[in-house]
Specification:
8% of the residues lie in helices and 52% in strands. The chain contains 1 helix and 7 strands, in the order βββββαββ. A hairpin with a 6-residue loop joins β4 (96-100) and β5.
């Protein structure tokens, strides 16, 4: 009879420190959104602004014992949130989501939602190369999905 591994109640984490290799701002604006099935809203338009930051992994720390994930690059999409901070949920468990895709080995993608004031102040800092590194902490990266617990830019 084979021994079974006991399930661990401890959350697994992967903490990545990356260099900022490139960044770009993507903006889209669409009208007549009510004509597209599944995208009906009360507004006749949809506006989307986000920042994409790509980096190379410099260090990887984890509490996994047997195997470490071989992630080489990370691509993070930052989105502004226009909700006042005092109306944010008190039970937030994550600031974003992380995933890997089947065809792209060694690449981790993620989304992070930031306060609008913080989001718009990042662009000048990236333009003058003030931020050289960023760090991401991913919780419970199981198979292809996890949640982002922490995200920060570093000088």
């Amino acid at each position: 009879m084979a021994r079974r591994k006991k399930p661990s109640n401890e959350e697994t984490y992967d903490s990545f420190r990356c260099t900022v290799d490139s960044w770009r701002r993507d903006y889209s604006f669409g009208i007549k959104r009510w004509e597209i099935p599944g995208l009906e809203t009360d507004k006749p338009y949809r506006e989307m602004d986000h920042l994409v930051v790509t980096g190379t992994v410099v260090s990887h720390d984890t509490n996994r014992r047997p195997n470490r994930r071989k992630i080489k690059t990370i691509e993070i999409n930052l989105f502004p949130t226009h909700i006042p901070r005092d109306e944010w949920s008190k039970k937030m468990e994550a600031v974003g989501a992380a995933w890997t895709e089947q065809g792209e080995k060694g690449k981790l993608r993620g989304t992070v939602h930031l306060a609008a004031g913080v989001y718009y102040s990042i662009f000048p800092c990236l333009a003058i190369n003030h931020f050289r590194e960023f760090s991401v902490k991913v919780l419970n990266l199981h198979y292809t999905k996890g949640s982002i617990d922490e995200f920060s830019f570093d000088m």
